[in-house]
Amino acid sequence: MDLRVRGDDVLSAMPTFEQPWPYLVIFVFFVRGFVICRSYNFTMNDIGSDKNQLDTPALWVDLETLERNIAALAAHFAGAGVGWRPHIKGIKTPAIVHKLLAAGAIGITCAKVSEAEVMAAAGVRDILIANQIVTPHKIARLVNLCRQAEVKVLVDDAANASAIGAAAHAIGVTAGVLVEVNTGMDRSGVLPGAATLALAQHIAQTPGLHFAGLQTWEGHNLAHSDPAAKQSGIEQSIGQLLASADLCRANGLPVRIVSAGGSGTYAVTPFIKGVTEIEAGGAIFCDLMYQSWGVALQPALFVRATVTSRPTPNRIILDCGFKTLTRGFLSPQLVGVADVQSVVLSAEHGIVTLSKPNTALRIGDGVDLVPGYGDATVFAHDVMYGVRNGRVEAAWPVLGRGKIQ
User: Fold this and answer.
1) What is the residue range of 115's domain?
2) pTM of the model
3) What is the pLDDT of residues 267-291, one digit of tens each?
4) What domain count does the chain have?
């Protein structure tokens, strides 16, 4: 079965006035936008109130800590001499993205076309989609988005590159393309060396495309618990990427972008000469997962919850389960509560077991938790509150929520 997408398939998928689905999409977006606006207007009433008065569960960021983290990362990457292109798959909030850009980020990285559409609509003008876009409808959306922003995308297949080029050429735009190189992650990407060169040459010769450079994610090295082994693994992975870039240049192909790195490798990758930009994003929140990967910042992302039951002095029940904080990663951490033995999340309940009795926390009291993994927490919420000195300063809609296509 041939699953490759051809250029004429993409053109036939583009909407026409005879097809009803564009009108359905517009109607759905109108209804969803109306619901979001109604909800957002309601949350605006919380601005100026004490954070402890928020209805729970509530997702919030400490603005002072967040801004310090952003400034520290911007200075870190500037000091390394690389551009900062934060990945926003776990941020999803245009208001925070604009804080990143104001701090010096050169653009952003997205995981999906739908995320890129949200960010372009919010005024972001330099976007890398660090993923393969292969179906006709998504390719049509991708090339049309190139009219609104400078959009770049990853490819690891010549037929896919040809399909994107045909669709872009048909509407008179040029899509920037980077070759994704597999340097050990064993997810997507072509092998370093000759395979990377062959695909780069194909892109450079395809109408509608601009060969922009190479990209990799050396995230498999996060499995190393030993810092020396982690650094050695990162250097080996990035070495393969840089050797592939040199091979392209030796064959007459300019390689403007060499993109790599994430929050878990931010201490090493930016300082490897030849890398031009780093995609670290989630570090700004510094949740428990990012701390475990070596991010040396302060937690800025929290969930406010309420005690709903005290069945025993050693057990606290909260109104936040895995639909609020997710599970499958590190367990969330309660702030200011001693002797916590475990936090277990069912669908709508957080079950806190204490190693010693605690009668101070009563039903109706509020507590804060640091999420185990912010990337798997933010997308569960409609609104993110910005809190400064204990008071709500902003209520931001999480417009990237649900953008999985």
Assistant:
1) 64-290
2) 0.89
3) 999 999 999 999 999 999 999 999 9
4) 2
